[in-house]
Every structure is written in C-alpha cells, then in structure tokens.
Write the structure tokens for this entry.
Amino acid sequence: MSSERHIVALVPAYNEEKSIAATIEAVLNQERVPDKIVIIPNGCSDRTADIARTFPVTVMELPRLEHKKSEALNRAWLQYAQDADVVICLDADTVLPPNAIGDWEQEFVYDWARHGSQAVTAFAGTGSSPAPLRSRDIRELPLGGSSSKFTMLGKDFLTRLQRAEFSRWTDTALRRGWTSVLAGTGAAISGEALRQVAAMDDREGPWIYSSQVEDFELTYRIRQLGYRCQVSPTVRAYTDAMKTVKALWGQRMKWQVGTIEDLLKIGVNRLTVMDWFQQLSGMFSAFARYLWVAVILTLCLVGHLRFQWLWWVAVPLFFVVLQVKHAHRIPHRDRVDVLYAFLIIPSEAFAWLRAGWFTAAWIQAPVDLIRGRHKDRWGLQYRAEAFRRGLVGKLRLAGIRVVAASGIATVALLSIGNLVPASGLPTVEAIARTGTGAINHSGPATCRGYVALTYDDGPTQYTAATSDLLRRYGLHAAFFLTGEHTELNPDAVRALAADGQMIGNHTVTHPHLTDLPISQAKQEILDNADLIEAVTGQRPTLFRPPYGDTNDKLSAFALRNGMPETLWTLDTNDWIGKTPSQVDDEIGKAKDGDIILMHDDEDTDIKTVALIASTLRRLDLCTGRIVPDSASHHIPLLDKSHSVKVVPW
Ligand SMILES: [Zn+2]
C-alpha cells in the first residue's frame, strides 16, 4: 500500500548555499523518502543550484521571479506535484529528523482510513463559512495539513527567546488541536486540499501572490474548504533563528503586516476569530506597557519621583504574573519551577520587542492598504532591513528607539541581581529528547571499516540533540567533556549516557596540561572523572588532553586510571566556523580506523549528522568503539602516538 501513496517534497531556495546540502541530505535520509524531491533555486546568485545538482534530486532552477517564493512553489507544484497525495513544503535551511516524513504520512493514512476518502466536498463560501468553532468539532474534520514543530538552534539570548515563543506556539496548537498556519518552514499538506485551493479563481496555483504571508493565506483557504490543519505531535524540524534584532524585526514585520493585511481583507469570521483575538491581545499588552512607561515618566517629570507601590511594584508584578502564567505553558519546563522568576527578564525583553512590531505593523498595514501600495517585504526579510526612507519609516525608526530604550530600561530594572537569563527555558536537549521517531539502526549493509566520531569540549545545549540524531541514524560517537561544561549541562551528560555514547574525560578547565605542575594536571583529570561519575554513575572510559597537549607521564597516569589517552587522526577543523557541508567534506576523507575530531559547540553539529551518516554509508564505513590497544600507533598529523584503536561497536 505505501508505495501507492505519492509524496512530493518542494524546497524553494533563495541563496542558501550554506544550508541546502544539509536540508537535502536530511530529506534523502528519511525513513520514508519522498517519491520526488524538487529543489527550486529561484533568483539565486550563489552556488545553491550547483550544490543541489550534486544530489539525486530534481533541480528546477528559476530566474528571479516577480512573486518570488509563492511563484516558485506554484510552478514546481504545477509541474511535479499536482497529482501528489501529500506535498511536503520545506525551507532550504530546515533539517528534518529521519522520522519526519514517515510520521507525516502516517498522520494522513490514519486520517484517510477514518474518513474513507482524501477529498472533502467543498463547501467554501466567502464570509459565511460553516466551519466549526469548537476544538472538539474541528478534530472531526479531515486532515488538510500538518506543520512541524520548529526547534531553533542557537545559544544566544535572542534565539532562546524565539525558541520559547515557538514552543508556546506549538503547545497552544497541540492543545487545541488545530493551527492557523502550516508554516512554510516545514509542513506536509494534503494533495487534494492543494488541488481544491488551486482551483479557486483568484490564483495560478495553491499559493497566492497578493499575500505577504502566503502560508497563512493557504492555510486559511484549506480550512475554509472544511479541512483541519494541525501541528504534528511528533515531527520536529531544526531551523535557524533570527540572529540579530534587526533581522528578527524584518521577519516579524513581514509576518505581522502580512497577517494584518490578510485579516483586514478576510474580515472577522469563525476561522479568523482566534487570529483577531491574538492581534487584539498583542495590542493590549503593548499599550499596557506604553502606559506604564508613560506614567513613570510623568511621575518623574512632575517631580513625584517617590517610591509608589502601585506603579513600581504592583503593575510590574501584574506583568510578572502574566508571564509566569505563560511560562507554565512552556513544555518541558523541568527547571522552571525553581527558576521561573528569572523568566521575567528575557520574556519581558521579548514582550517589548513584540510590542514594537505589533504597533509598527498596525500603523503600517492600514497605511499600505489605503495607499494601495504593496511593499516588497520579501526583499526586506532577505536583506534583514527593516527601515526605509519616508515619513512612515522615520516614525517607525523613532518608535523603535523609544520602545528599545524603554525595553532596555525595564529589563535593567527587572534584572538586577539576576544574571542567568533564560535558564528556565526548555533546552534543545529537553526538546530533542521528547522526539518519538523510530530508531534507525541501518548502517551500511557491509561495514568495510570502522571510524570513531568524537566531539570535544561539551556538553552544550546542542549535545543531547546531536546524540539523539546520531542514535536515529544508527551512529555512535565519543564525547570528550570538560568539567566546567558538565556542571552547566548535567542533563546533557545523562542524555549521552542514556543513548549509550562513549564518554571521555577532557579535564575540568581545559588547560594546557603540560604547563601545569604534574600533580595539578593529574587533579584536573581525576576531578573531572569524579564529576562525570557523580552525574552519570559511570566513570569516563577515555581521556583526551586539551589541545592534544600531553606527555608520557600523563598518558600513563590516564591509562592507569582506566582512561586510555585518545588523540585524533582526522581533524575536521570545524571550530573555524565551517558550514555543515564543509565539515562533511573532511569526513569524506575518512578511512578505516580513523578517529575524527569535531567540536560540540556549534549548531552545525546537529545539521551535520545527516550529511555524515550519508557520507559514511557511501564509504561503507561504520562508527566504532574506541578501546585500548597494546600497540602504539603513530599519528603523522600530530607527530604523536596513542595506544587506542577503533573496533566494531
Ligand atoms: Zn578541547
């Protein structure tokens, strides 16, 4: 039966040479590989198309299109996906875990079995949609599409805030059983629903050109036809967060203005009532904050800068209570119980940013609509430029500065004494650990040799997600942990132990051991072993000196303590900021017995796993275990020796 279902993946790409390889490789490595994978580089001035052509996928290269991503999707859909049962839409910087497409397929198969047919009798009518309002009734509708749960990678403050926000979004959608956006980032859409939307007379294909948030518009049309759109409970997608406030602002202005424009066009109905409510509550929370700052400023100006309980304590406390209430809804809030008070700082900073773009968008969208002008917000997002000349732009710039200044003041006020922002947020590892994808143990049919993957300097917030993906790809690795990082991320170390990875000792503080008195160097090793044992119940089984900086006494000491010294024979040099494909290029040089050095401190770790899995399979190499060896092996790369070897796992 499964071969009868036709699944097509569409991946529009605009200048994504850095990420496209990881995206494609993750699709090719799915437990259920799509029947057709169409990469659509459009208007690219970089090597995106060339890189895509090195994979067994269909590359539909298009010039710069007037309607950009929407037009690219429509053209590819018309040519390759019109007859598909399920269409997977992916951004070219999204990485899917191996279970994604198979799980999506099962969601549809289950639904088709329940409803007997893929099609819905269209009862679309503008204005008076008969769609049900209650979640319980919505759950009875046939499935139109399933969005992924995005997991944003990154350890910076801004990424953590976006991650918390998206986890809240996911949680809300999962709880009520439906969503109003099948995100273009990664979603599976019913082929029948797409055909019905494409047949509407205002468009060339499923995606419309007059909306700036084409995925929101498409989802609305699908829901209007009587389908349910949901967030998948099991499909996760790893994606990039906006790294700067300016980029985040550009992205959110595009979403906000686009959503408001569409809502104003569509009006209030049963399908949009929740979106309208969200807009109103966004504006309410913005105005509440402006009002508070205005009152404080007024008090200052009129010379009443006395301490007033109502304005200095009661009102902020009201915000605090609201945020804590929100915080309680963040899934996996294991440490939130202890630390949720800290959540006020980052979430309040984010609330100010949100207040900014809500306000700006509500000024911008009606102005645009009245002037009948259509601004190219795609370009804005691509360039991450949020500003433009003219009165509106200047006003907005001034507005942003006021909002930013007040935001910073508020944050400073609220954060005195609290130096651990975002500690209570769900970590990537916490999120990754809830993945339910089947474990894929299928390595190459024949292992012509064994290599060891090793990750140094962790654990970090990427460690558990990396380990989880390795496990799903049937790969193993050794993680050489420092004590300082173990203390910061004990959960990640437990995750490694639970996944059965090798755990190595990389000292407590990562010093040049040979520069230390020998007793102190030995203490670095022993203390870290004690620490790791305290966390996992097991002592590390390997030792790697930081910088490979060692001598005979140290190697003998480590060996006597059950941790044979392990250097490396292949260096990916990943720490200099290489892209996933550049790291993978180095892995491509691996041969039997190699011990491969990588570092566990960049988000590329996660995106590289699918590439590594496929490269090793191509080379017929499996990942093995590092064990002590009686012989000493010289390593030309380092001009040093070690006495370990790689054996079958
Ligand atoms: Zn190191």
In short: The longest helix spans residues 273-301.
